[in-house]
Amino acid sequence: MTIPTSGGFLETKGRLTLGWRYFSPSMKQDLEAALELIDGMIGRQQAKVLELGRKWVPHATDEDLRNAEDFTVLKDKPIFHYEDGILAGLIAVRTALGAEMRSKYPETALGLEEIR
Known about the structure:
3 strands, alpha+beta, single chain, elongated, 4 helices
């Protein structure tokens, strides 16, 4: 199956993506816009996870909460794990988009900075 997009056509086989057939300048702009959007979403989710974690561990830093298993009080807080899972998913999407940007447009520096 071939799916038309703003930057070309995406070839798929069932639910597996096989890759882009061609690239256009608008695809680069779309990727840049998506990266900016995801960066903003990650920043807001990091703040949310930090605020939520500090409800139970007031002295915790962002770095501390990356290793939440060190705090027994957080082990029994499913809402914390849920929000932290959303953050992990957003970071995974950011990583994938950054890799796509670098593979298609190696001259760009977008996607090289570390998120977490």
